[in-house]
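Protocol step 4 of 5: obtain the predicted structure for the target chain.
Materials: sequence only (see below). No template structures provided, no constraints applied. The aim of this step is simply to have a reference model before the mutagenesis design in step 5. Sequence pasted as it appears in the construct record:
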Amino acid sequence: IYMENTKIFLRWKICNFITGIIANGLMIVVNCSEWIRSRKLTCCDMILTSLGISRFFLQCTISSNNILSQLPQDMNELCAIFRIVTIFWMFLTTLNLWFATCLSVFYCVKIANFSQPLFLWLKRRISGLVPQLLMGSFLVSLVTCLPSVNTIDRKYIDNSMNNLSGNTTGECLYKVDLSSSFFILSMLGYTSPFIIFIISSILLITSLWRHSKRMEKTTSTSRDTVTEAHVRAIKGLISFIFFYISYFVALVIFLLELSTISSYYVWIVIMGAYPSGHSVILILGNPKLKRVAVRALHYAGCRLREAVS
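Step 4 output (structure tokens):
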């Protein structure tokens, strides 16, 4: 049973990796091609491109970590490489959360309708603030992850012991010190975008729901095209929230080492599904990306049928 579960887990990781690389690579290629062609990029596409790049490298970092974990960890050089990969993983994870939060805030400010002065001011300025938000997300992620360099360096220990032949074997171990101020700072880097994301998502869903109810009362038909579009947007946001919350919970449980051996693989699967699954949802909700994806799938299907025949 253990071997069978391991095989299923390995297939799932490979599927997540391939899906994530294709989906995020599609967002990067399409938006960068448009930027090269027209020398301009919309604010939404700018956020999507940044999110795609961070997730692309996050998928590569996770795959590198999986490869390193299968190698014999009996060399100091390997331990050092593993530590660097872990640091990159923490930075890209934080950056990914912040970019996803920027996307949620952008959608909330552009789509939702509230009469508060601060919200109206943001509505007028949000397009010009997008580059600053992205750069700020990068700097905040860097600042919150830099202290973990020293923390990881302290927690990687050489668990060596002499055997009968006189050789020395070692293993790279990593333990989290929950009382460490470095760890608390790192957790703030994870929880801050999560709180902002939840607030903006709730505001946006509330605004869309109210608008849908008003449209149903003012139109002769119970559901017009505008109302249907708002309902689809609400469903997309709910799936967005589901992926985000699941990933955040799994990340915290993984970092705090609260999972049991039986649930360890479940949390790893959830963490691996977020960068790929949510990117697929973003592509399906974006007409331009969806059109390119459909054409690419049609082309791939035709090539596959030709190869089979």
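Step 4 remarks: The longest helix spans residues 181-218. The chain has one domain: 2-157+172-308.
Proceed to step 5.
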